[in-house]
Amino acid sequence: MVKQLIANAEENMKKTVEVVRKEFASLRAGRATPALLDKVVVSYYGTPTPLNQLANISVPEARSLVIQPWDKSALPEIERAILKSDLGITPTSDGTVIRLTIPQLTQERRAELVKVVKKKAEEGRVAIRNIRREVIDQIKAKQKEGVPEDEVKRGQEDMQKITDKFIKEIDEMVKSKEQEIMQV
């Protein structure tokens, strides 16, 4: 019973780490990546649609993205959605494709991005710790139901080891993303 609680918690922690990884991927680090546009939603015939479902997004160079819509009539809506987004990039269109040039990051912007990365990482760590706390509470409740004390103690220790493993993984992701952002 305790093992099942721990297995469920580990699965939830993996999902939390994936969410943090996706958040990091959507942060602009001066390098072009299609993940930058993951949060852009276009009003396509009145329906909010993710940009990556309306167009092919390619990276021809390190600092540029090319968006090629499958339906050319969606071009103005895609441009409008990019302008409304918090990317801070102005799209240029030639009637068939939209080009986005990723500007060089200033030192202050890099410092701001590092703060954002650390904030998102801390949110991930807090979520992982909350999962640990809930599971440890459930394990303690099992002890009152008759689960042996040594099994409860072992369950708590295992939960702590798993928690440490996932927090370490987030810390490594932070270090890697920080280096990527600060690289000129």
From TrEMBL:
Swiss-Prot/TrEMBL GO biological process terms: translational termination
Segments crossing the lipid bilayer: none
InterPro entries reported in the protein's UniProt record: Ribosome_recyc_fac (IPR002661), Ribosome_recyc_fac_dom (IPR023584), RRF_sf (IPR036191)
Any one annotated GO CC term: cytoplasm
Localization, UniProt: Cytoplasm
Signal peptide span: none
Pfam families associated with the record: RRF
Key words of the record: Cytoplasm, Protein biosynthesis
Superkingdom in the source lineage: Bacteria
Residues in Ribosome recycling factor domain copies: 21-182
GO MF annotation: an example: ribosomal large subunit binding
Function: Responsible for the release of ribosomes from messenger RNA at the termination of protein biosynthesis. May increase the efficiency of translation by recycling ribosomes from one round of translation to another.
NCBIfam families recorded: frr
PANTHER family, per database record: MITOCHONDRIAL RIBOSOME RECYCLING FACTOR PSEUDO 1, RIBOSOME RECYCLING FACTOR
Annotated family: Belongs to the RRF family.
Protein name in the entry: Ribosome-recycling factor
Species of origin: Desulfotomaculum nigrificans (strain DSM 14880 / VKM B-2319 / CO-1-SRB)
Gene: frr
